[in-house]
Amino acid sequence: MLDFAIFAVTFLLILASRQASGIPGLAPTDEKDGNLPDIIASSSLHEFLVNLHEKYGPLVSFWFGRRLVVSLGSIDLLKQHINPNRLLDPFETMLKSLLRYQSSLNGDTGESHMRRKLYENGVTKSLQSNFALIQKLSEELLAKWLSLPEAQHVPLCQHMLGFAMKSVTQTAMGSSFEDDREVIRFRRHHDAIWSEIGKGFLDGSLDKNMTRKKLYEDALMEMESTLRKVTKERRGKSFNRHVFIDTLLQGNLSDQQILEDTMIFSLAGCIITANLCTWVVYFLTTSEDVQQNLYKEMDRVLGKGPITHEKIEQLRYCRQVLCETVRTAKLTPIAAQLQELEGRVDQHTIPKETLVLYALGVMLQDSSSWPSSYKFDPERFNEESAMKNLSLLGFSGSQECPELRFAYMVATVLLSVLVRKLYLHPVKGQVMETKYELVTSPKEEAWITVSKRS
Fold first, then answer.
1. Apex 328 CA angle, 327 and 329, nearest 5
2. Cα separation of 259 and 238, whole Å?
3. Model confidence over 225-245: pLDDT tens digits?
4. 247: how many CB neighbours lie within 10 A of its CB?
5. Burial of 41 (0-12, 13-18, 19+ CB in 10 A)
6. What Rg value do the Cα atoms of the chain yield, rounded?
7. Going by DSSP bridges, is the β-strand pair 67-72/354-358 parallel, antiparallel, or unpaired?
8. What is the pLDDT of residues 76-87, one digit of tens each?
9. Distance of alpha carbon 131 from the chain centroid
């Protein structure tokens, strides 16, 4: 899932041997850095892996420093991969490592499992308790768009990030983030942290630039201070709305564990929700047929009334649209796991302590798994095999990460509000380029226009 995925897990490990086990791939370009110069030259780890798999096939190897890295680029190989860590969330593992937090790879397995269940329950309960809030924020965005002149260009990325920030902060930490000033302050720190995770950790440039490093560390310190303040304010008290941090406070967690888990949900929840909403609205502007089919389903299931928890399950086509958005955008293009025990894939041995990448962005565009893979086509998820493939990749079902589950729900509510009231239009001549980092986003602002449905 990361441009810098390799860093995140290698922080935890000792150096491995240089035995490549016969897996095809690249020899080290540099004695010290391995193939890091090749990754940087490719602009992102995802684009590096696309080229590597095209050249060498679905199972490849390369070097990060003196560490062997193996990448799986097909769903068939993913099925073969035997890894005792598969039940861990690679998104959480890597993000915690980057923030220097305690990873689930260390410590008691039972305690980690209980902590993970508490985290997942916190997301579920906060969605249930804050469903009306998410509706309200969606209606506010609709009102803002309806107030614009019909031809005015709407900065989609900017508006979706603001919407996601409000949704996540109020759902995670409560009513203090109803104050726009608090949300703006949070966004400033969030952006400073995320921009460095996206660029500085890949090439080591953050440590070489003291000004950037101080801005990053100050933002992280300020954000942690805010989370500690919220923890103190809500501990042992009762509030009208149950939020994510309340579930953590009810568990047997230390203050540091509460801080870490709230930070992970706040950071990852915002960026995944913002980009899922951005991409789905953008793709709807490019396909009038899909937009109209979605409108018809919303009208049939919801009528003139608001969306409810119960009716979400009936919005089958909406779920297909969101799944196809994740697939087409390659929303999280890479996952990583540590091979704790020796394993085998396709007659090749993967040595113990090898870093194994799941090249999800490669798999999501594999024409053998997805016919007409570059076409945005929600109808493909009428097939059970397509939904099963998506589940194997961690984007649906039991392997779905809590932050993505949160984003699916928020995006569904938002679409139920926007699509029934607005036509969504593309801006002619706009060329959408993609930036591949922890979460895939447009490289530049995505512009759309809207008009009122009659």
1. 95
2. 20
3. 999 999 999 998 888 899 999
4. 22
5. exposed
6. 22
7. parallel
8. 998 888 555 454
9. 21
